[in-house]
Write a structure and sequence with these properties.
This protein is an alpha+beta fold. The chain contains three helices and seven strands; from the N terminus they run E-E-E-E-H-E-E-E-H-H.
Length: 139
Amino acid sequence: MFIVNVEGAIHRNGKWLLIFRNEKEEHAGGSLSLVGGKCELEGTSSNILERTLKREIFEEVGSEVRDLKYVNSSTFVTESGLNVIDIVFLCHYKSGEPYARSADEVDEVIWLTTSEIIAHKELPAYLKENIRQADKMLQ
C-alpha cells in the first residue's frame, strides 16, 4: 500500500519557492523541499491531487496557486519504511505572500532561481531534477 504525496514547484518572477521542513517532520526533517503533503481518504471524489496540493500549499505557507501542470511522479520509502508515491506539479503563484504558516511543518520559506537550486551542494538530486523538469515546461 502506498501513501500518495503531492508537491508544488511554485514559480514566481524567475524563482522557485522552497521550504525548510521542520526538524520534527517524519520524512526529511530539517531539509529544503518543495511545498506539499499527503492525500487524505475522501471516498469517491475528483481532482484529489490538485485539491490536496492547493490545500497543503495554503496550510503550510499561506499562498494560493493556479495553473497546475503535471511534472513527474516517483516512489520512495520513508525512514520508517512507508512506501510513498510522489507527484510533482508545476504551479504558478497566484496570491498570498508565502511565510512559515504551519510552524509544525515549516521553519522558513525561501525563493531560489533554477541555477541556484542546481548549484546548491546540500539539495538532493531528486529535487534538482524536479526543478529542471518544471523549468523546461516554462520554456
